[in-house]
Amino acid sequence: MKPLQEAYNTPVPIKWEETQLGIEGYFKILDMNYTIIANTMVHGFMSYKFTSENNNTELLNSTKGYAIQLIPTIKSSLYFILDTIQPNGIVFSATDNSRGRKLLYDKYCNELLKNPKWRLNIRIDGDVKMYIIYNSAVNSEMLIDVSEYYSLVYSGLLNN
Q1: What is the side-by-side order of every strand in the sheet holding 32-40?
Q2: Three-state DSSP state, 25
Q3: Residue 160: inside a domain, yes or no?
Q4: Owning domain of residue 34
């Protein structure tokens, strides 16, 4: 049990690079390459998504055992962006009917909320659950703008 728990708590190294729009992180687990993309949005917020080389964003539905290392790596990347880049907030979503992914994101958010600096706003639209983690200086008008902006990006009506 201990090796499994250690793997679950040990992220793989991420190579970070600044981009014109924000920051990207690259890492490899077994034979799969992953990319994390965090782009600057409105009001100093960043969007966040990850993908694999075959454009698969599945976290927990893998049959190849990726999840055990992928989960802590995604978590550490969120912490890195919030602690190092220090945006006003970060927006990401679980965009499928994966209950496990949403529960995992809920857990990450609850851990972040232990720091009084961070707040959380969740929006649900069908199978899409949007998470907005933001610092305490953000006002409600900014949250509305960010939510609307991210919804446009997600729907493909706006590039980011």
Answers
A1: 15-18, 22-29, 32-40, 45-52, 89-94, 128-135, 118-125
A2: strand
A3: no
A4: 2-155
Contact 45, 146 (CB under 8 A): yes
CB atoms within 10 A of CB 113: 13
pTM for the model stands at 0.81
Backbone angles phi, psi at 147, to 5 degrees: -60, -45
One digit per residue, the tens of pLDDT, for the chain of length 160 reads 445 555 567 899 999 999 999 999 999 988 889 999 999 988 999 999 888 877 655 554 444 555 677 888 988 999 999 999 999 999 988 876 767 778 888 888 888 888 889 999 988 877 788 899 999 889 888 888 888 887 776 665 545 5
In a domain, 51, yes or no: yes
User: Would 110 be classed as within a structural domain?
Assistant: yes
Q: Count of domains in the chain?
A: 1
Half-sphere exposure of residue 133, counting CA atoms within 13 Å on the CB side? 27
CATH code of the domain in which 27 resides: 3.40.630
